[in-house]
Amino acid sequence: MKKQVLSLLMAGVMAFSLMGCTSSGNNGPQSASTKQQETSAKDSSKQVSKTVSAGNKVGISMPTKTLERWNRDGSYLENKFKEAGHEVLITYSDNKIDQQVKDIEGLIADNVNLLIVAAIDGESLSQVLNQAKEKNIPVVAYDRLIMNTDAISYYISFDNYKVGTIQGEFIKNKLDLDNAGDKKYNIELTCGDPADNNAKFFFGGAIDVLKPYIDKGILVVPSGQTEFEQCGTAQWDTSKALSRFQNILGSYYSDGKVLDAALCSNDSTALGVTQALSSDYAGTNEVIITGQDGDEPNLANIIDGKQSMTVYKAVANEAIATLSLGEAILKGETVDASLIEKAKWSFEASYNTESYDNGTGKIPSFLLVPVAVTKENIQKELIDTGYYTMGSDGYPHPVN
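Above: the chain sequence. Below: its structure as tokens.
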């Protein structure tokens, strides 16, 4: 009898082991146009050894619902992982750092198999994410790099430096700065949240394009606010951007000085700057205004000629890439540049192991490519691609 019980127990252990080796299928689109950086990530030291079957529990921590783009990100991520058969627990932390820490603690306590975190403050999550590491829960930093913790397995985002260069190049080309001659143009700079690591990349990309013209005196910043610390906008808040720009206009443009361009790192800050110009700017010229994200009010402003462009990041594609990455991690696969080929994404992406150091080392990163959207190409880039529909009001509305 004892031998029979022992045999049954051994059979059960073997069956359980076999179950642990099963894996879910890949859900990426069928065609691909990709470029790869053929570098391994610390000899694949970021590989997670934990192998789990399909139907995992995935925890997603989003910053807030007050910014339109995070609603889109959260919705796309939740839907993609659910469609792939996973249980999804998603939280929004109302832009409160303490709340996000508590939310992540709750996800860890719920024994999620994977954590996807878009940080409110990239400097404030190291302690709570160490708890995830202790429980062998892999963590993907989503869209924003999380600093000073070795709990991060991978970073997935768009090429954030490229976002800035697109904005800077747009201003450079619209003003034809290379052929300016003796002309001088006035510009003001509005950056993002100093707590968001991405904001520095956005600003860095843009200023690297524009600074040579500032140094030559072709571009002039009447306020003198040219450093990131001077131009920051806490929490990317529209009202803060509005108030700051009203002060700039009142202090430096009340004598009839013309403003030619306003570099804005994203759409929520651009919205504040546009509102300030409509209420506090005496000039009648069209001011070049940049943005990022493709928020509905800003797209309406682009249609109406109040904003010049936005850099669009297709978060639907970012969700697809995150699913491919997350499932590879959960299967215990070695994740490197080959994932792009295997996943067969229909969008361009690169694998980068050099650019994003979070203070504990360089984090292997998958970077998607953003695109400039203007009134002229809004149909092609947003409507024809299916990301938005053109409403009966004549403005684009996102498809969730």
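The longest strand covers residues 152-158.
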